[in-house]
């Protein structure tokens, strides 16, 4: 593996990590929050292609890599289900009685 390919993969991972961090501070509407997952998916693909060399292995390697990505997607979806579906419910303000003897 060439050093240029490693540097390009590292720069891509750093850029996607910075984009994900920056997007987490944006006041996005609830419908756009799943878009924050997109840089993470691209990071997974970069790691699989560059460091794991999935494209150069036999068919069984690609099958196991796809199965791993499938289960990773399931885990990410289950982990994101709570923050993506959480809502704030307003509570009524409690009325405090005046002190006795006042």
Gross morphology:
elongated
* Overall pLDDT level: 85
Largest sheet: none
Amino-to-carboxy terminus distance = 82 Å
Radius of gyration over C-alpha positions, nearest whole angstrom = 23 Å
- The portion of residues assigned to helices is 55-70%
Helix- and strand-based class? mainly alpha
Short description:
Helices cover 63% and strands 0% of the residues.
Tell me what you see in this structure:
There is one protein chain. The chain is an all-alpha fold. It has one domain (3-85). 63% of the residues lie in helices and 0% in strands. The longest helix is centred in the C-terminal third of the chain and has 27 residues, at 59-85. The model has no long low-confidence stretch (mean pLDDT 85).
Q: What's the SSE blueprint?
A:
Elements: H1 3-24, H2 37-51, H3 59-85
List the main descriptive attributes of the protein structure presented here:
102 residues
